[in-house]
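Please check the following for our workbook:

***
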Amino acid sequence: MIKDRYISFEDYEEISGSTYKEQLKLKTNSSRINQHYIRQHLGNVIVNTFQWQYWVVVTFGYKPDASECEDCLSKLAYRLDRRLIKQVKDRVCLYPEDRTEWICIPEVQNVGIHYNCFVKFNVSPCIGNGYESEKHWVEVALKNNLETLSSHFPSLGRGKPTVFVRERTRDRTESLKQFFYSAKEFQRGVSHNDIDPSFDRFERILISREHWKNIPIHRHRTPNKVEHIPPLFDKETEQDLSKFTV
């Protein structure tokens, strides 16, 4: 059993899916324990509800600006979908419900930031002979677009951003490990190693459906050049992850 400091993930699943009376057992006045419950809830969504196919780790360069990282991720998703529509037969448009969905969890290490992203494809690309698999297509699309985007953000030019892609397996334990790895910094206080002492890991979680303007992507009419991409980032200053569902 995968256990946590306050309540195991399995116990949280059981209580959260039970009666309201049982759920009252989770009530607390401790902000730290409440953050723990929010993390468990987010894990429950990612492992059991959100039907993601790829775990994508995007690492940014030396002392990047967090807002630029977030903007870059939103544009990375846009350009991925722009490439995706070209690989989908019998469609000329990806409507908002067809576009990829992202849940991105930030991690701060010394002088860098990376985002652990769980990515769901609502439409699958038709892979040509030039790619070994769909995963290979995703890797190439993300790496090429990240390289292009990084040159458009001043703070990202201080180090080469990288991307790592792993396909989801049917092993539920593996999915749990990926989530807990991604969220391992949750409940930590700020440290002298943080890029920004005010960096709030919960506040900086990105949920594409909630924070990005998922406009339709047309095969021929939607611009692809970075300077022509419309503003996508629409994240509010505060969010309540305890109520997040998919």
